[in-house]
Amino acid sequence: MIYLDNSATTRTLETAAETAKKYMSETFFNPAGAYAPAAAAERDVNGARERLAKVMHAQPQEIIFTSGGTESNNMALHGAAGAMRNSGDVIVSSVEHPSVFETAHALGTRFAFAEAAVDGTGRVDVGKLTAMLSERTRLVSVMHVNNEVGAINDIPAIYAAIKKKAPLALLHVDGVQAFLKVPLDCRYFDLYSISGHKFHAPKGVGALYVKAGTRFTGGQTGGGQERNLRSGTTNTPGIMGMDAAIADYVQNREAHIASMRVCKRRLAQNLSRLEDVYINGPTVEDGAPHILNVSFLGLRGEVLLHALEEREIYVSTGSACSAHKKGKNRILTAMGIVGERQEGAIRFSFCPYNTAEEMDRTAEAIQDIVPMLRRFKRR
Q1: pLDDT at residue number 302
Q2: Burial (Cβ within 10 Å: 0-12, 13-18, ≥19) of residue 264
Q3: Could you tell me the end-to-end alpha-carbon distance of the chain, in angstroms, rounded to an integer?
Q4: What percent of the chain is modeled with pLDDT above 70?
């Protein structure tokens, strides 16, 4: 099997799985309990919070544990908007993940919704975004790394523009595809979302960074966990499993990033030998190290996906959250990629455990399959 859909989810690291298992079967106590084993579990969770904060160059009290990226994004937007006294404008980029895009739309009863344009590589056009900003702007949300094409947004430039033209506005950054893979700096955003299963932690756990001093109402209500900002029984196994995955990634980060970059470069070079093949988004060197989006003209991406599946090579045609939705790809359309080029788009996404040899085998399979699929479609 060759798995190249790591932007959808990653295989849980063995140490992360074993750690989660320990907190399910041995240290299974509810951290909210009053007895000693429960207090020990709470100390472990808070230790994980401190270590995550250190990785993010943040303070422990700025970290809220969640169930993953979708909850973090929802909480960020609703929690920020709920604390605002006045109505105003909410701006998101036209290529945001549905958990941001649809959530921002849902704020429409109090806030005017607007889309910021992206350029042909998938990056937010900072000049056009700046022109949209005003004293009415209350919230801006952009992704750090585009989940479909790997474009990296200039977060410091966006933040500077916001603070200059819209001083009352907050900047939320969806860091689900970026965390641990590209540099981050907490000075340049107010809220930041991460999701564990994108970096070999278990599914169902993530975090939201909320800068100290930010007016914020939080998420779901109930028992008052997470400093009364996100109620619900603490997911100790998930949090500690994510802690183990982060520790491994941090220890090996340079090697991990270099390994993914090698795979991305190797596959792109191999596929360039085929006719009518185009890379979507930034150049191989400019984008994030783990995402490569390629269009194969003269065929449908979904058909190529299933042909590769028969050879146990797993790829995608875009975001997993949109895999069952029919119609045009909103992200590629916003980038100006339409027609045959959109129809034939495939996303390859890598992890540190993919190999150059797998890239060669994948390219060989594609070089074998694509001419046949093109002949079939043109009949």
Answers
A1: 96
A2: buried
A3: 32
A4: 97
Judging by DSSP bridges, how do beta strands 111-116 and 63-66 pair with one another? unpaired
- What span, in angstroms and rounded, lies between the C-alpha atoms of 334 and 342? 11
| Residue written as token pair 């599946």 | 309
DSSP H or E segment with residue 214:
none
The C-alpha atoms of residue 290 and residue 360 are separated, in whole angstroms, by 16
For residue 50, give both structure tokens.
């401190």
Dihedral (Cα; 316, 318, 321, 327), 10-degree rounding: -110
Alpha helices in 56-175 (DSSP H): 69-82, 98-106, 126-132, 155-165
* Sign of the alpha-carbon dihedral angle for 119, 177, 352, 356: negative
The bridge status of strand 191-195 relative to strand 206-210 is: antiparallel
Per-residue tokens: 56 = 């993010």
Q: Which residues are catalytic?
A: 321
According to the 3-state scheme, what is the secondary structure of 312-373?
A: CEECECCCHHHCCCCCCCHHHHHCCCCHHHHHCEEEEECCCCCCHHHHHHHHHHHHHHHHHH
Cα dihedral 55, 236, 77, 331 sign: positive
Q: pLDDT tens, 158-189? A: 999 999 999 999 999 999 999 999 999 999 99
- Coil/strand/helix, residue 139: strand
Whether the pLDDT of residue 323 is over 90: the answer is: no
Output DSSP code: residue 282.
S
Residues in the chain: 379
**267: enclosing H helix or E strand:** helix 253-271
Handedness of CA 183, 185, 188, 189 (dihedral sign): positive
Separation CA 289–CA 228 (nearest Å): 37
Read off the tokens for 58.
């943040």
Centre a 10 Å sphere on the Cβ of residue 59 and count the other Cβ atoms it contains. Answer: 15
The identity of residue 4, as a single letter, is L
Residue-wise pLDDT for 18-71, tens only, equals: 999 999 999 999 998 999 999 999 999 999 999 999 999 999 999 999 999 999
Q: What is the C-alpha to C-alpha distance for residues 146 and 148, in angstroms, rounded to an integer?
A: 6
CA distance 190 to 250: 23
The DSSP code for 296 is E
